[in-house]
């Protein structure tokens, strides 16, 4: 848990409206999941239907942040788009797999945002905890959006590079 709090301190802070964060994630869908992921989503979904406790929220948040950090590292290690058409094709397929992982985890990110929002709306937490949760879901939403945009940008550049190679041959 200490790691999660340190992670939040390092993240850039910005003002985000709660409604915007929830609108962005309300349409979250999961294309496919492994068995462990589906169990977590079911657990998180049932938690969001009933009263959410702070411990469940923190566990869900920690799980999503851990995965998100791994995903950010994976995206960074993909490197520059190559000049060779065969390498570009392989990079494109590798990135497609990465995009599928993003899609698979999108619902989990949305669930954590919903749990955090519900904690705030219930009004059962202290003002300090509510403020902390508000900051956390804002940062999570920003971090998710940044990861998603970077991944889509790489996909776009990869497609463009593939087209350039096709026209050259």
Automatic annotation (TrEMBL):
Q: Does the keyword Membrane apply?
A: no
**Which Pfam families does this chain map to?**
Spectrin (PF00435)
Tell me the InterPro entries matching this sequence. Spectrin/alpha-actinin, Spectrin_repeat
Q: Which UniProt keywords apply?
A: Repeat
State the name under which the record lists this protein. Answer: Dystrophin
Q: Which organism is this protein's natural source?
A: Ridgeia piscesae
């Amino acid at each position: 848990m200490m790691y999660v709090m340190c992670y939040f301190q390092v993240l850039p802070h910005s003002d985000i409206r709660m409604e915007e964060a929830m609108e962005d994630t309300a349409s979250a869908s999961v294309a496919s999941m492994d068995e462990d992921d589906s169990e977590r989503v079911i657990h998180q979904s049932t938690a969001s239907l009933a009263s959410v406790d702070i411990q469940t929220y923190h566990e869900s948040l920690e799980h999503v942040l851990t995965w998100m950090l791994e995903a950010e590292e994976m995206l960074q290690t993909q490197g520059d788009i190559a000049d060779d058409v065969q390498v570009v094709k392989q990079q494109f397929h590798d990135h497609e797999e990465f995009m599928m992982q993003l899609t698979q985890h999108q619902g989990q990110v949305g669930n954590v945002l919903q749990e955090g929002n519900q904690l705030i709306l219930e009004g059962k937490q202290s003002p300090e905890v509510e403020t902390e949760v508000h900051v956390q879901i804002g940062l999570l939403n920003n971090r998710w959006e940044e990861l998603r945009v970077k991944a889509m940008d790489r996909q776009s550049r990869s497609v463009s590079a593939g087209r350039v190679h096709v026209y050259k041959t």
